[in-house]
Amino acid sequence: MKRILLACSSGMSTSLLVKKMEEEAKEKGVDVEIWAVAQDKAPSEMEKADVLLIGPQMRFMKKKFSKRAEEVGIPLDVIDPVAYGRVDGKAVLNMALELIGE
Amino acid sequence: MNSKFMQFLEDILLPIADKLNNNRYLSALRDGFMVALPLIIFGSIFVVIANLPFLDKLISEDAYAAYQNALGPASAATLSIMGIFVIIGIGYKLTEHYKGEAIYGGVVAFASFLILTPQVLEGVSGVIPTASLGAQGMFLGIFTAFISAELYRFFVQKNWTIKMPAGVPGAVSKSFSALIPITLTLTVFLVIRIIFSYTSFDTVQNFIYTIIQQPLTALGSGLPATIVAVLLIQVFWFFGLHGQIIVNSVFDPIWYALNDENLSAFQAGTELPNIITKQFIDSFLVGMGGSGMTLAVVLLIYLIGRSRQLKEIGKLGGPSGFFNVNEPIIFGLPIIMNPLIIIPWLIAPVVVTIITYYSMATGLVPPPAGIIVPWTTPPILSGFLATGNAWQGAVLQAFNLAVVMVIWWPFLKLLDKNYYETENKETKNAS
Predict the structure, then answer these.
(1) Are B139 and B116 spatial neighbours (Cβ–Cβ below 8 Å)?
(2) Crossing angle, helix B3-22 and helix B243-268, to 10 degrees?
(3) How far apart are CA A75 and CA B304, in angstroms?
(4) B382 pLDDT more than 60
(5) Which residues are in the PTS EIIC type-3 domain (chain B) (predicted)?
(6) Which residue in B has a C-alpha nearest to residue A64's C-alpha?
(7) What digits encode the pLDDT tens for the residues B57-104?
(8) How far apart are the C-alpha atoms of A34 and A26, rounded to whole Å?
(9) What is the ipTM, given to two decimal places?
(10) Domain ranges of chain B
(11) Are B135 and B84 in contact (CB under 8 A)?
């Protein structure tokens, strides 16, 4: 089970991605749990996740989240803006899996 | 616009966004407002229900007054005294940030604020005027929460304890651990209160209100400052940075204070003092499909879009656009870093700000009534609710959508043509 956490300002626009990524994971046959949260909830939610992906509009949070990610011991990155705009579940899922190291 | 210049601007904006968003005071402030938000919206719902249109004509005057009186406490206990919840939220979040006992940080902030608050109203002592817990006390509350959380942390770190003789149970001496920092923090505020009672300001609340809050809100309620704020939001978004979350962390105290002043006037049935309020921004600018009023762009794509790329974006961004979530449009169109789009992107919101401002200033449309409408409320409905159930608010939003469409039309047409031609070439090359 791969646990993928997405974060943006209020968890709204990343939640658009969640559904697309779940569909893609189903097709690929990967067992995942994907959820989106508002940025203020991200530090506490990171404990339950294997990877954190940040919406590109909140990329200025990366530095702050990096410290916490190190404590929890998970990788994190900013989602590619083009994939974000296309709500490209496939690209973002692949990015998440790559970060986890699959 | 060359890419070096773009890179240069981004190098400036990114650190600003980082500083503003990660500053511990501004982030405690933003989170403090988040704590208050559910209560504020609860109050707002009942202001809307208490002021249903035409109800005053359907039932007798007495019945209408009784109806309003019955629902009044809902907003009086939440929206009108929102300062309380913001203060507790800030004290809590800041203390949590310092890894202290957050709940003490919250209540100490609130108690400190009450110590500085007038405790007399029109000669009657032993009362706390609710006005000072709402709009009027907003700035004092914010500063008090910051300072009290810092003092509390300072005194906790000093770790001054009362030495108990051997044989006293550990739990007893531990019970003093919160007592000393709290006592010292609140004493500081009591001394501040006493000092101010000897000045011409009488109370600290009066001092902060006169010296800081009034000038700032007067500035913030004007058209020039609003246009600057709106342009800043647009510029941040143009670089793909979340404009509102950055700008709001500075402007929210002003916009909420202005909002609460209107609410008091609306409920008292007097003239609304402000045009620029939290809802002016949230319902009439951001609440039109998201920042930059991109619902107009979606509608325009449906009307004139020929290229596959634009049609695809319309499909992706349309449904969420009605609820003011527009990242698919911003990153997909794309709006970010698109030199063709920067013109309508910056001009349209300014034009809409001016139209909205003057249609309210001239009395064509009632100003926002101080009701907080959740930002995901679709336009037309949000304009109706924000203006205290006035149909003019809905019409103004529809009119503004049309204006934005006209401004965007030539630019989107050109973008569509470019995409369409590239797509045709690609198909030809492929065949």
Answers:
(1) no
(2) 50
(3) 43
(4) yes
(5) 9-411
(6) B22
(7) 888 889 999 999 999 999 999 999 999 999 999 999 999 999 888 999
(8) 12
(9) 0.84
(10) 21-219, 221-431
(11) no
Question: Could you tell me the CA-to-CA distances from B231 to B237, B307, B351 in Å, in that order?
Answer: 10, 30, 11
Closest CA–CA distance from residue A83 to any residue of chain B (Å): 8
Say yes or no for a CB contact (<8 Å) between B240 and A59.
Answer: yes
Q: How far is CA B34 from CA B2, B86, B101, in A?
A: 40, 8, 20
Bridge partner residues of A78 (DSSP): A54
Compute the nearest-CA separation of B91 from chain A (Å).
16
Contact A85 B330 (CB under 8 A): yes
How much is the average pLDDT of B401-418? 94
Nearest to B140 by CA among B72, B201, B58, B49: B201
Q: Does A48 touch chain B (CB under 8 A)?
A: no
Can you give the residue ranges of every domain in chain A?
2-100
Q: What is the pLDDT of residue B174?
A: 64
CB-CB under 8 Å, B241 with A59: yes
- Within 8 A of B244 by CB-CB distance, chain A residues are 9
Mark yes or no for CB contact A81/B336 under 8 Å.
yes
DSSP code of residue B259 = H
| Known catalytic residue at A8 | yes
pLDDT at B55 over 60: yes
